[in-house]
Amino acid sequence: MATVREDPMDRFDRLAALTTRAREALETYVFGQERVIEEVLISLLAGGHGLLVGTPGLAKTRLVAGTATVLGLSERRVQFTPDLMPSDILGTEILEETEGGHRAFRFVEGPVFCQLLMADEINRASPRTQSALLEAMQERQVTVAGERRVLPQPFHVLATQNPIEQEGTYPLPEAQLDRFLLQIDVDYPSLEAERRMLAATTGGAETPLSAVMGAKDLEDAQALVRDLPIGERVVDAILGLVRDARPGGASAEGLSWGPGPRASQALSLAVRARALLQGRTAPEVSDVIALAGPALRHRIALTFAARAEGRTVSGVIGEMTARL
């Protein structure tokens, strides 16, 4: 029997409605973080990973766990600590002996073998352990004992990070930072949002979250994001923004390093994911401006002299977006 193809607009409307329901469900679970929720969903809809940065107690872990539930993804959590080893994440081989006396190695999967990995306080582990995720995040596979093992699909990492000024933290390597599609800064909630949070979380039993989407729906939405058209004006805005922060660019002065091509790819996908999440069939330049900070702030570093002058990465990005 021939498969009936879904009308493109019906497909768009269906997936846009599902993503909207997912966002609304998370907004009833994590209060006062609408922008953060949107950027987390954009990261996943674009097929990437997200890095949530903020002080402890701002519901970063709660948001990641809620996202896994709402999207219907299998989720595992790793609490990063200074003594965590790469094998604690990827898995290891153990030697077993059968009743007949035959010995053989058996691979025991680590928590990375899931659809959504919560890397909690990722910058509390050593750089060696942090780097264990590089292959998984880029290639959706891991190599253990010389053998490549494919991860479940879809596979995403949502990592939480404490500000690097806090004790017991290690800066993430630039190579790993670049693997994150967006860096999502988590701020304190507003007074009204915190009031609603108190009423909802310190009273009776909370209403549990339930799945709004499934893994197949997420993969369909990710494919749709790549199918959405993107205009030349938006492409020019993305390229102009990224290239401005490279050597020779208009904003290169005071930067020790700038974004590579992966930043352009991240913005191209993220602006389309934002359009889908807001029910639009194509992105606009306003999407580029809205996502410039999350897409670039972890891909830009200032020189010591620039920091001494009081310049900030956010300020530099603000100068660049003002020229769009």
Write up what this structure looks like.
With 324 residues, the chain is α/β, with parallel strands linked by helices. The protein folds into 2 domains: 1-84 and 111-201, 3-Layer(aba) Sandwich (Rossmann fold); 228-324, Orthogonal Bundle (Helicase, Ruva Protein, domain 3). Helices cover 44% and strands 16% of the residues. It has 14 helices and 11 strands. The strands form 4 sheets. A 5-stranded parallel β-sheet has the order 2-5-8-1-9. A two-stranded antiparallel ribbon has the order 3-4. A hairpin with a 2-residue loop joins strand 6 and strand 7 (147-150). It is globular. The model has no long low-confidence stretch (mean pLDDT 90).
- Alpha-carbon distance between the termini? 52 Å
Tell me the fraction of residues in β-strands, as a range.
15-25%
Low-pLDDT windows of residues: none
Q: Strand tally, please?
A: 11
Number of helices: 14
Overall structural class, as computed from helix and strand content, comes to alpha/beta
How would the global form be characterised?
A: globular
Major sheet: arrangement of strands: 2-5-8-1-9
Order of helices and strands: HHEHEHEEEHHEEEHEHHHEHHEHH
Rg, Å, rounded:
21 Å
CATH architectural designation of the largest domain: 3-Layer(aba) Sandwich
Note the main sheet. 5 strands, parallel
For this structure, the CATH topology of the largest domain is: Rossmann fold
Number of domains: 2
